[in-house]
Amino acid sequence: MKILDNINHTVREDLQDTMQKGSRVSIAAACFSIYAYQELKKQLEEIAELRFIFTSPTFVQENTPKERREFYIPKLTREKSLYGTEFEVRLRNELTQKALAKECADWVRRKVKFRSNVSGEQMPGFMTVGESSYMPISGFTTVDLGCERGNNAYYPVQRTEVFENGRYFLSLFDEIWNDSSRLQDVTDIVLQSISTAYRENSPDFIYFFTLYNIFSEFLEDVSEDNLPNEATGFKQSKIWNMLYDFQRDAALAIIHKLEQYNGCILADSVGLGKTFTALAVIKYYENRNKSVLVLCPKKLAANWNIYKGNYVNNPLVEDRFRYDVLYHTDLSRSGGTSNGIDLAALNWGNFDLVVIDESHNFRNGSNTSTDEKENRYTKLMNRVIRSGVRTKVLMLSATPVNNRFVDLKNQLALAYEGDAGKINEKLNTSSPIDEIFRQAQKAFNTWSKLPVTERTTNALLAALDFDFFEVLDSVTIARSRRHIEKYYNISDVGTFPERLKPISVQPCLTSLDNAINYQQIYNVLDSLTLHIYTPTSFILSSRISKYIDPSQHGKGLTQAGREEGIRRLMSINLLKRLESSVYAFRLTIDRISKLIEDTMQSVRSYQNGSRVLELNDISDATDWDDDDQNNDIFTVGRKVKIDLADMDHVSWLHDLEKDAENLELLSLMVQDITPAYDAKLQELLRLIDEKQRHPINPGNRKIIIFTAFSDTADYLYQNVSGYVKQAFGLNTAEITGSVDGKTTIPKLSGDLNTVLTCFSPISKRRDSLPNANQADIDLLIATDCISEGQNLQDCDYLINYDIHWNPVRIIQRFGRIDRIGSRNCCIQLVNFWPDVDLDEYINLKGRVETRMKLTVMTSTGDDNLISPEEKGDLEYRSAQLKRLKNEVVDLEEMSGGISIMDLGLNEFRLDLLDYMKKHDDVEHTPLGMHAIVASTPDAPPGVIFVLKNINNEINVDQQNRLHPFYMVYIGQDGSTVCDYLSPKELLDRLRLLCKGKTEPDQSLCQQFNQATDDGKNMDANVLGNDVHNINILTVIASESYDSFAKGLQSELAEAVANRPRKVDAALFVGRVLTDTNGNEQIVDADTAAAIYFDLVQNGYVDRHGALTDKYYADHANHAVQVAEEVADCAASVIDLLDSVYSDKVMLPENARSNNVELKIDPDKLAMPEFKALWNKISPKSVYVVDFDTDELVQKSIRSLNRNLNVSKIYFKVESGEMTEIKSKDSLLDGSAFAKADQHQYDPQAKIHASQSVKYDLIGKLVAETKLTRKAIVQILVGIEKAVFDQFKDNPEEFILKAAALINDEKATAIIQHITYNILDEHYDTDIFTEPTLKGKLGTNVMKVQRHLYDHLIYDSTNERDFAADLDTNRDVAVYVKLPDGFYISTPVGKYNPDWAIAFYEGTVKHIYFVAETKGTLDSMKLNHITPVEQAKIDCARAHFKALNDENVVYDVVSDYQTLLNAVMK
Predict the structure, then answer these.
(1) Burial of 631 by CB count in 10 Å (0-12 exposed, 13-18 middle, 19+ buried)?
(2) Cα angle vertex 613, ends 608, 619, to 5°?
(3) d(CA 809, CA 788)
(4) How would residue 1389 be classed by pLDDT, with cut points 50, 70 and 90?
(5) Angle at alpha carbon of residue 112, lines to 108 and 115, rounded to 5°
(6) Which is nearest to 137 in space by CA: 23, 1, 26, 13?
(7) pLDDT of 890
(8) Is the pLDDT confidence value at 497 over 60?
(9) From 4-18, 675-689, 799-813, 908-922, the region with the lowest mean pLDDT
(10) Average pLDDT estimate for 474-498
(11) Taking CA 325 as the corner, what is the angle to CA 321 and CA 331, rounded to the nearest 5 degrees?
(12) CA dihedral 373, 378, 383, 385 (to 10 degrees)
């Protein structure tokens, strides 16, 4: 019998001897791994057969009752162990699984049979080889073979020979093997499963396999109640079948979010069809018999009304939509009729779904308490959402956020009724939603103050918290046009057309000689008071109480505030209308003049007595643009009724008379500007003429002309339609939204849908409409009533006849033709600007600022000055208007604003969900799979790795949204194309490359297999000549920290072994220094002394020749100062300083290896005092290494150029003879032979070792240095030719010396860039049982009583005496000489404290003590310990201080009395 401990004697080593040619092997175990086959491949190929029994049901239907399956490996885990267990991650990361699986499958076919236990009985595992048996055997994996540690505290295996009852196990195996009632043959299934590891995978499968692994928890948590129910039939609807794929994805995601979170914001960019997406969602809920309300700006009502009307020209008539349409402003009304609905009788609280178009109008929010001031937002919250049935909210906006994240929060609050608790419990976040947005805004404010070069999108993403992205992912959908172009197959849809550079024109006001200009009119406008709109402000203070309704106090806009708003709005409006057209300006002047004249007549005719003055405060709605008409002042309040006896009518009359005079002057100034002399109109006709004669797309004659005002639209229709009809035979239409449109086509209906269908028949699918009018309209004049929600991409030419003050509106107008699926190659935007300086036009101080003041008043009812946030908003708009003069931009590209595009991951989850309904193949698929796809311009050649951190608790800076999965895209040149901080972009690229490609690309697979030798060689020649541009990616998480730290520190110890040990003048003598110009100088003794003197003076070197902390601090800040004599050679001097280290730096602690075995005392191990001690001192600590690879490459190049000297190979023949044997000693010392002759071949013969033997120079250096191939190639390319040419003289020496020099630089870099972290992970007490401690009693071992072991190994007499005192002191409960397995990681090697001591509580102040014993404390003060030892001690102090426990102390003591002084009370 033999015991294999799987540490010093492994099962693998034993089997390599036991398995012979022709051996018969039988294994009963829980699982089988191809990596175990790899370890014994040579022996397994020689055996005659292998029979394998899966001891639990595997690859069969599992019927074992759940209660009997508590302590064994789950079936799926057993089956997937074929491709490697969780402890074989390191092997799987070599990426050779494909080749290995192929070899293993071939071997299985020839030599192996698999059967599985189907009896439900438990079968302990064992193995027989010939007539030898091994047990217990849990599985056939590298852990069971002793190659990997796994998580076993111990794993001894007993080998029994035939004469020791070994034949019993063979007989037992035969009995079970032949019992068909117990076993079922699964060989074919196992083979099929192994083959999946080497099959060529389709890119489509790898995409979904990736999603399955990343989002598998989503599949477990998802509720069918939160998913779109296809049984409703909404996917058979007309609207669903008109959607593009990206719109369908959005619709499904919206429904999921509405069901789970009660709300969603659809923030797709302009031109992506948000209206149709929303209609699909509405259809889903209507099919579930839900009541739907659409709230939109009044100007967009026609867009929504089109699709619910029972008309032949409604493309969606068969869907029979029944939703209600109301306006934003209706929320401020208490009665009347709107869009055919009686507002007084309407049950506002009975809507199951509210769709809010242009939801950004509600972004200012408000206090939602019912006893505070009410505005439109609070009324929506209280009337519609909080009251009645539970209401879901879908918000549509291309600009949900401007430059405040609170904009988004206010809109989202509608979904959770203003009660943050309702959303907090649903979100998977660590902070409440209010705190999340507060921190996000703080991060944005900080980011916005960065220099322009640093103010990048990635910088902002890095600054935002993980929770913020989780919120966005949960409740928003936002895709840009670039996103759709990149990541969706739009071949069936078409692409976005090319945007030509905008044409900007600035015609003067008129072509008349000596006529007035814009500036002169502006000056007169500035003098207008427009007090006709503010009569309340002239009421005498003693009478004002008559006009205040106490019941309305605090419930909204006051009458005085409303009047002031109208006055300011009209002052702005006059400027807007002048910029629009002289015709519109003149009409407004005339209307205001008439209102003033009528009012003055009433005041003048007033005498004594009472007379009530009635005023309509808004004279005519056509004076205002669509955005102004969406303001609350158009719907609140009533006619103004004021008794003139209560007014200061004299002052009011004075102001009115002054305004009347100025208005008359303005009218005279523009009365001569007829259409013939209207320079702006004539420029428009010229542009139309140019476009018709020289179309930008062949045969396309269509033009859209946008204006903000219906009066201007009327003016243009009157003066343009006749001209284009006569000149070009084109038909014109006008759409203003207030009344039916006009057309030059006789008897053609002027309704919106008919006109737009005739204008853009392809995009409106006219051919599919029954009885549709086939007439064509080529010129469309429209207001902003169609600036949103319309597909008019048949047109390729759009003219903004006036520039809207809001840049978003300009982009939205252009979005009518700048849409996906356009048949046009290119499109043109033309902007008319007033003939003034742009800054004057923007007029931030006057026009825009007062416009925003009105927004403040209408929201709050007060007259506060503009807030800093709003001022930022104005400056943002101003900057964008300037930008729009020269280019067409997307909303998400506007600098200074916030975009929420491309952040959500929900579409991938839904992608996976849909796939899993039809496929079940991903669950059993092995890890480590790959697919080969062709690169694209947006996805350059490289590798996308999907890695999993096996330490689930560590999420780097809490920034990885996919934790524990880490994705990284490594380009062909070794650069990082994209990483885990941008998961949306990475998954988008993956989907673009893979989705829909359901078959492997055989041509690419063949190339890849040839380059990698069918997957055997995955780290070289993968890309032919480009192999040296590929990084080898190592996953540190795949190995234990212990093994990683041990390997790293041992490696460093070797690397620095031959370095200088201290800084003195001798270090520099004879060295070659290079200045900034490349000139070299050799350092003489005087210069060396000067260099050393300056280093001491600057505090860089201490009296022992060691570099100080000050040196390293200045080094990190690039501020190291050197002697004036070598100032130009500072870099060379610093390189020499960096090479200095003690020969003991980085050496791992020496193991206490002895010869006599110690036994642990289980009673001591179980003592409460020891358990408490161990619980407090066992946390682990690690250090993190972070250095600059580029810097390392450059330093390595310099070091090789200076120091790499390789001797040439030559042949030397020596001969000698021994004449007599003089003595035994002469034989031992080799002097018995006398040299007689020697001959050396001429080195000029140019003998090159590399001529006949091929060396993998790069591969060898990679292996020696553990750097990437890219880094090694950069170093070799960078060194001088003469240095590199030494390789052919002596390749082996070149590789060894070059690797040593590179490792020198690597060691320096690592040592200088190490930081510490305390982990939650603890040492287990198994470190006391793992090693076999041996010594010699009386020499270095003593018998003890209070020690954890029965004996104690001491390293010095001081330790022996210290232990003897501990052992006899009654205050000591238990103590232990700590083993090597307990250590603290430090930059200079791992540190093992000497002692851990637990005292009985009562007589000591520090109950738990960790001690380091030194000869004397005086010796420490005299620096008799090395700097390395001192550094370790300092690190230990910091480590134990971080435990933050006053009962635990660490110190250095010389003897037991010193210890007592430290612990006694």
Answers:
(1) buried
(2) 150
(3) 9
(4) low
(5) 115
(6) 26
(7) 53
(8) yes
(9) 908-922
(10) 74
(11) 155
(12) -150
For 141, residues 6+ apart whose C-beta sits below 8 A from its C-beta are 31, 32, 33, 35, 36, 81, 85, 87, 88, 148
| Cα-based distances in Å from 684 to 580, 724, 726 | 13, 12, 16
CA 135/CA 129 separation, integer angstroms = 12
Is 634:562 a contact under the CB 8 Å cutoff?
no
Residue from 531, 533, 542 nearest 651 by CA: 531
**pLDDT confidence bin for 72, thresholds 50/70/90:** very low
The arrangement of strands across the sheet holding 183-185 comes to 2-4, 157-160, 132-135, 126-129, 24-29, 49-54, 112-117, 183-185
Q: Which two tokens stand for residue 230?
A: 């296809």
Type of residue numbered 1208? K
Quickly count: other Cβ atoms within 10 Å of residue 854's Cβ.
23
Phi, then psi, of 1239 in degrees rounded to 5 = -145, 135
Pair 673, 515: CB distance under 8 Å: yes
The burial class, CB within 10 Å (0-12 / 13-18 / 19+), for 746 is exposed
Q: What is the pLDDT of residue 871?
A: 44
Helix axes 1269-1278, 1189-1203, angle to 10 degrees: 40
pLDDT, residue 843, reads 52
Retrieve residue 713's tokens: 């639209």
Does pLDDT of 853 surpass 50? no
| DSSP per residue, 540-560 | -TTTGGGG--GGGTTSS--HH
> Between 67 and 621, whose confidence is greater?
621
1068-1084 mean pLDDT:
88
Tally of CB atoms within 10 A around 494: 15
Q: Residue 697 is which amino acid? A: N
- Residues 1002-1015 have pLDDT tens digits of 888 888 877 777 77
Distances (CA, A) of 765 to 345, 760, 783, 794: 39, 9, 23, 11
Q: Which of 734, 716, 708 is nearest to 573 (CA)?
A: 708
Contact 1335, 1154 (CB under 8 A): yes
What are 649's two structure tokens? 């009518």
Cα–Cα distance measured from residue 283 to residue 233, given in angstroms and rounded to the nearest whole number: 9
* Beta carbons of 245 and 996 less than 8 angstroms apart: no
**Cα distance between residue 75 and residue 31, in whole Å:** 10
Place of tokens 């069809």: 273
Nearest to 480 by CA among 789, 249, 272: 272
Q: Which helix (H) or strand (E) holds 1213?
A: strand 1212-1217
Query: What is the pTM (predicted TM-score) of this model?
Result: 0.53
Contacts of 929 (CB under 8 A, 6+ apart): 197, 201, 206, 209
User: Among 370, 1202, 531, 523, which residue's Cα sits nearest to residue 836?
Assistant: 523
Return the structure tokens found at 176. 């079970």
- Residue 1399: pLDDT band by 50, 70, 90 thresholds? confident
Residue type, 689: D
Tell me: the pLDDT tens digits for 508-517?
888 887 777 7
Q: Which two tokens stand for residue 1293?
A: 């020496």
Mean pLDDT of 1170-1178: 88
Q: Which residues contact 1066 (CB under 8 A, 6 or more apart)?
A: 1088
Let me know: does 1030 contact 1269? Beta carbons within 8 Å: yes
* 3 state SS of 1035: coil
Q: What are the pLDDT digits (tens) for 589-647? A: 998 899 888 888 888 877 555 577 766 545 455 555 555 554 554 444 446 678 888 88
pLDDT above 80 (res 1102): yes
d(CA 752, CA 783): 12
The verdict on whether omega for the bond into residue 964 sits within 30 degrees of 0, i.e. cis, is yes
